[in-house]
Amino acid sequence: VRALAVELAPLRVNAVSPGWVDTPIWEFVAGDRKGETLAAMAERLPAGRVGKPEDIADAIRFLNGNGFTTGETLHVEGGHRLV
Questions:
Q1: Which residues, other chains included, contact 49 with Cβ-Cβ below 8 Å and sequence gap of 6+?
Q2: 3-class secondary structure, 16
Q3: Which long-range CB contacts under 8 A does 58-67 form with residues at least 24 apart?
Q4: pLDDT, mean of residues 32-50
Q5: d(CA 52, CA 35)
Q6: How many Å apart are CA 74 and CA 59, to the nearest integer?
Q7: How crowded is residue 81: how many other Cβ atoms within 10 Å of its Cβ?
């Protein structure tokens, strides 16, 4: 992302790096254990919950709306990198 931001300037380049997000894919990944799997991760996260699609959408809206942000990877993961 940083290299692309420099290479493509003045075009802005950013990325969103989501953590655990409760989406329908978990029904295929974890099956009947979806709720149990996500609850176990939520207990470990500093935010105390897994993400929602709206959390990721908010991050994208921020990056799109802030014309002075470029070359950044925004981690939207409830503090997962801290634990």
A1: 42, 78
A2: strand
A3: 59/16, 60/16, 63/14, 63/16, 67/12
A4: 97
A5: 14
A6: 7
A7: 10
Number of CB atoms found within 10 A of residue 54's CB: 9
Fold of 2-82: Rossmann fold (3.40.50)
> What secondary structure letter does DSSP report for 47?
T
Q: Residue holding tokens 């931001």? A: 5
Residue 79's pLDDT band, with cuts at 50, 70 and 90, is very high
Q: Tell me, what's the pLDDT at 16?
A: 98
> Region 44-54: what's the mean pLDDT?
98
The candidate with the shortest Cα–Cα distance to 14, out of 78, 69, 67, 54, is 69
**Where does the pLDDT of residue 44 fall: very low under 50, low under 70, confident under 90, or very high at 90 and above?**
very high
For the chain, list the strands marked E by DSSP.
15-18, 73-76
Return the closest-CA partner of residue 13 out of 24, 25, 3, 21. 3
Q: pTM for the full model?
A: 0.89
